[in-house]
Structure formats: C-alpha cells, structure tokens
C-alpha cells in the first residue's frame, strides 16, 4: 500500500496528516515539504512582538513519531503523473501514492524592486530577515495596506518605528469591508501615527546613501531604512497544469476537495479552489481556518470514503492591528451597507450584512469575539439578520 502523499507541509498539509490519523487512517502518510525547517505556523510571523522569535511550531519531532508519519523536509515536488499515480521530487525520487493531497499553498507576490532592505513576508526566513532589519530601523516603508501590510505597520509602531504606508487604493480595505468600514480601518492607522499615502503608486524604489528612496505617483519622495512589500500572493500551478489537473483560480475541486475528474487527488488550503454549495460557485480562500477545516474534510473523506462529507464553509479570518482584533465572517455584499452596532467604552463593533431575504450573510467585528461566533453560527444556520442583530444589540447594552 503506497498510502497518502501530501505535497506541502505547512498549515494545510500538517493538519491533513494529523486529521488522517484522527479519522482512523492507518496507511502510510508521507509529507513532502520544500522548506528544510520543521513546519511552523504563519499568522505569528506578522503578529509576534519584535522582541521575540516568531517561530511557532506546527509539529514537533515527537508528534511526527507518535503520528507515525514520514516528513520529507527540504524536498520539492516537481512533477505529477496521474497515469502512474506518482510524484517526482527535486532529487529525482519517485513516490507512489494511493491518494495525493496537494497542499502547496501560495508564495508572496515578489516585490517589483530588488534592492537590499526590501522584504516580502511569507516564510519564517522572510520574517527573521525583516526583523533583523527592523532592529536597526527608524523608518519603515510598507507598500500595500492589506492584512499583512497593516499588521507589519502595527508591529513596527509598537516599538516606535516611524511608518509610511502606501497603497494605490484611496481606501485600501474598502475592497474587503466597503467604504465606510474601510475608512475606519484607514483611520486606525492614522490614530497610531502612521503616515498614510493612499491613492498613490510607488513609481520607483532604490537604495542610495544607505537609505531607500521611494518616488510616489503624486511626486513625493519617501525615505526609509527598510521596506515591506505586501501586494498579495501567487500560486505555482504550472506543474499541476502540466499534469493535466484542472487549474484556474487554484486547483479546481468539487465540494469534497477532489480535483475535478481525479478521484484520488485532493487539494487543500490556499492552493485549492473548492466548489462551495452555499455560494453556488467555486472559491479559493487564503485564510488559516479554511486550510484547517478543508484539511479535516479531505482527511475524513480519504479515511472513510463511504461516508464522504462536503465542505460548505462560512469563511473566517482574523487580523490583529494595534489594539484591534478584527474578525471577518462570511461574504459581504459591498453594494449594500451593513447594519453597524457599536459600543464606545470599551470600544467594540459588529457590522452585519444581510441578503434580500433578511438572512445574515457576512459580518465584521472589532474586539468582539462573541459577536463573531454568533455571526458565524447565524450564517451557517440561516438565522434572520434581524434576530442576530437583536441579539448583538441586547449584548451591547
Ligand atoms: C505573515 C502571514 C500572516 C497571516 N495571518 C493570518 C491571519 O491572521 N489569519 C488568517 O486567517 N490567515 C492568515 N494568514 C494566511 C494563512 O497563514 C494561510 O491561509 C495558510 O498558511 C495556508 O496554508 P497552506 O498550507 O495552504 O499554504 P502555505 O502556508 O503557503 O504552505 C504551503 C507549504 O507548501 C510548501 N510547498 C510549496 N510548493 C511545494 C512543492 N512543490 N513541494 C513541496 N512543498 C511545497 C511551502 O514551502 C509551504 O510550506 C497569514 C499568512 C501569512 C504569510
């Protein structure tokens, strides 16, 4: 029996391996991971205080032994043969599989400028390199005000480093939470003394006289000691497409996580575009909880093929920025304004989106984890938005 081969040993891959055993899978499990490091978690890379090392292990040597799995570190899967049910590694080794799980995630979109002191943030090595530079920095330039850019800005401000945050969009998070809440998130940066330059592009970035000089599209120049570029992620789909797998926005999978047309090949985490019954379409989600929940479903479906369970998630992501714990739940129709419930002291906020049938579809909360749980449950159970709203108003009194 060749067992399960998992390509990629980070959040989705490790949780798949662990869940296979939990669901009673007794066969061979091999995890192939390109990095030589024992697997570590990703969210702490942009959240852990600068005084500490951001490495939070996902798996220990003793757990590997207890689970009875094989971890092939420092090895990249480079080829897949669906006809032979094999993957080939970068050392030319061939692994036969009964079931293949693709958990190769995403990589940071590279910075368009390559000069010393310009970082991206995806791996532990990236995080350590950035932290080494920040230790000596007085001014950080952050390009891209999405989740990662915002968290790095927040981290730098926590140690008094001056931050300039640049984004092409006038209200960067409007694309995620709409204009009004996007403006609140922009204001959060300003309240924390971040110099925001929104609605402008970086035309050039170069290092001279031991300083970075960024020319912005409004003609201004920003000088900084170091820079972080957080402009999204990209997928490596070439080897999968070459093998004939259906790829578009990720590996196209059914609601059970099987690559369309390939019963023995599954995809989980950031690389996977699963069909979502709730949405009536495929979606690819780059969030931690999604990776863990998909891993659990695929493991269960491999361990108990006669009792497959579909995955129909209510998407969830959190982000820690300054003294705000921001949580986003479900899907938000940005053409409609949410109903906002907020309390001043201590500050907390919940925004509730609804559909035409008054069902709650999405939400955003700040410093209000119970509201986030209620919203996720409400969406999952189809509870009327008015009912969820009333519960939250009651709880906020
Ligand atoms: C700095 C940072 C902060 C984040 N914060 C949050 C947060 O607060 N909340 C949240 O919900 N999400 C957060 N995320 C996103 C979350 O971490 C990802 O959704 C999650 O890591 C996805 O897991 P994954 O295993 O699918 O992909 P990845 O984490 O990208 O892991 C894929 C792994 O596969 C390996 N690999 C790639 N190609 C190959 C190959 N060909 N062969 C073998 N191995 C390969 C890679 O080395 C990597 O280890 C954050 C991400 C980052 C980078």
Written overview of the protein:
The protein is α/β, with parallel strands linked by helices. It folds into three domains: 4-106 and 235-307, FAD/NAD(P)-binding domain, CATH 3.50.50; 109-229, 3-Layer(bba) Sandwich (FAD/NAD(P)-binding domain), CATH 3.50.50; 323-395, 2-Layer Sandwich (Enolase-like, domain 1), CATH 3.30.390.30. Helices cover 26% and strands 30% of the residues. The chain contains ten helices and 27 strands. It has helices at 11-22, 61-67, 124-135, 147-158, 174-177, 179-191, 238-242, 288-303, 369-381, 385-395; strands at residues 4-7, 29-33, 70-73, 77-81, 86-89, 94-96, 99-102, 107-108, 118-119, 139-143, 162-167, 195-198, 202-208, 211-216, 221-224, 226-229, 233-234, 247-248, 250-253, 265-267, 272-276, 281-284, 316-321, 324-330, 339-343, 348-354, 360-366. A five-stranded parallel β-sheet has the order 3-2-1-7-20, covered by helices on one side. It is globular. The mean pLDDT is 96. The structure holds flavin-adenine dinucleotide.
